[in-house]
């Protein structure tokens, strides 16, 4: 099973430019989470900070007892082996075959014999649907296949945490749908903790157990998928609808004067209840996702703390007489009581 990642008070700047500040969240063990945000909000920087490739100025990232921000580099290096990282562009070596690309981490970080390396590589390539393509070069295959090869390479060291940086970038909607299903299938098979950084609404709507969003150098929200997907926060509503009207501008957030000039009304922008599409399930023949039961139990335990719309969506998705009976008489969250 994957392991929990605890992020506490994380703040990152480049010179005088603050990227985000005081980010606090927990990636639950074995669950799939998504981090959304407009372009330029530091999503990739956040990903690199989790694995210790960038050092935030403040805060902690706790992975199995190791602080990826503040502990000794030797300890961080060892903890980093628990991660698998799928880069945005695949980051494949153009002169190497797909087999050698996927085998690279095994040859660099283990002492496995070539026979064992071949077994592991072929297993991972089969897992992502690339069996039979191991002899091809990256330039001979499609962008979607390169993404899958990058994912196979991220999985060869049996990571407990998998980070995916915009797995949909450069892909058409059909290939994005295939990648979305692949990520669910991978989670079903290896039960790793997964964080997907994206600005793709289709992935965010169908793949994760949990969703967060970065905007204006802050974490807007992080929690069960239903919380963000039912949120009436103006920035969330604008992002989910793809509207030009709202706090998000072409290059950065809009100021109050700009919002006033375009006649933006935060209360009027609330779109009302949204339909939440069902979360993807593993493909036929795949094992069930072990994270589903853990996530359900965890979310039921926090229901009274969630907004009414999110709570109703969760109950509608969970169904079942036990969950219904457990929550029929639950009081509204404090902020929604008279």
**CATH superfamily annotation of the largest domain:** P-loop containing nucleotide triphosphate hydrolases
Helical content band: 25-40%
How would you describe the shape?
globular
* Neighbour order of strands in the largest sheet: 6-7-8-3-9-10
Percent of residues in β-strands: 15-25%
Q: Main β-sheet, in a few words?
A: 6 strands, mixed
Tell me the CATH topology of the largest domain.
Rossmann fold
CATH architecture of the largest domain: 3-Layer(aba) Sandwich
Please state the average pLDDT score: 87
- Low-confidence spans: 320-338
Number of helices: 14
Rg on CA atoms, Å: 21 Å
How many separate structural domains?
2
Can you put this structure into words, describing what you see?
- The model is unreliable at 320-338 (pLDDT under 50).
- Strand 7, helix 6 (173-190) and strand 8 (193-197) form a beta-alpha-beta unit.
- It is globular, with a radius of gyration of 21 Å.
- Helices cover 38% and strands 18% of the residues.
- It has 14 helices and ten strands.
- It has a six-stranded mixed beta sheet. A four-stranded antiparallel beta sheet has the order 2-1-4-5, with helices on one face.
- With 338 residues, it is α/β, with parallel strands linked by helices.
- The protein has two domains: 5-224, P-loop containing nucleotide triphosphate hydrolases (Rossmann fold); 291-332, no CATH class.
């Amino acid at each position: 099973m994957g392991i929990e990642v605890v992020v506490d008070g994380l703040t990152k700047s480049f010179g005088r430019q603050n990227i985000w500040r005081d980010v606090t969240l927990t990636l639950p063990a074995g669950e799939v989470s998504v981090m959304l945000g407009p372009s330029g909000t530091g999503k990739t920087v956040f990903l690199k900070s989790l694995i210790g490739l960038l050092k935030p100025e403040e805060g902690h990232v706790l992975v199995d007892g190791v602080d990826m921000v503040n502990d000794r580099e030797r300890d961080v290096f060892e903890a980093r082996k628990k991660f698998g990282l799928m880069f945005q562009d695949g980051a494949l070596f153009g002169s190497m075959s797909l087999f050698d690309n996927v085998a690279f981490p095994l040859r660099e970080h283990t002492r496995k014999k070539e026979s064992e390396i071949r077994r592991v590589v072929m297993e991972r390539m089969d897992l992502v649907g690339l069996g039979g393509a191991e002899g091809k070069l990256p330039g001979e295959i499609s962008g979607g296949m390169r993404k899958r090869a990058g994912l196979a390479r991220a999985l060869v060291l049996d990571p407990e945490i998998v980070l995916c940086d915009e797995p949909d970038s450069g892909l058409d909607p059909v290939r994005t749908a295939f990648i979305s299903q692949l990520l669910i299938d991978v989670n079903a098979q290896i039960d790793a903790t997964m964080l997907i950084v994206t600005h793709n609404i289709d992935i965010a709507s169908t793949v994760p157990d949990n969703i967060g969003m970065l905007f204006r150098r802050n974490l807007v929200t992080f929690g069960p998928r239903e919380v963000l997907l039912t949120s009436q926060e103006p920035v969330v509503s604008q992002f989910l609808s793809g509207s030009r009207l709202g706090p998000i501008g072409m290059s950065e957030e809009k100021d109050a004067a700009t919002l006033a000039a375009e006649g933006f009304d935060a209360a009027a922008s609330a779109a009302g209840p949204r339909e939440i599409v069902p979360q993807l399930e593993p493909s036929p023949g795949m094992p069930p996702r072990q994270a589903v039961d853990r996530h359900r139990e965890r979310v039921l335990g926090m229901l009274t703390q969630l907004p009414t719309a999110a709570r109703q969506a969760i109950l509608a998705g969970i169904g079942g007489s036990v969950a219904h009976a457990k929550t029929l008489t639950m009081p509204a969250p404090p902020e929604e009581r008279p």
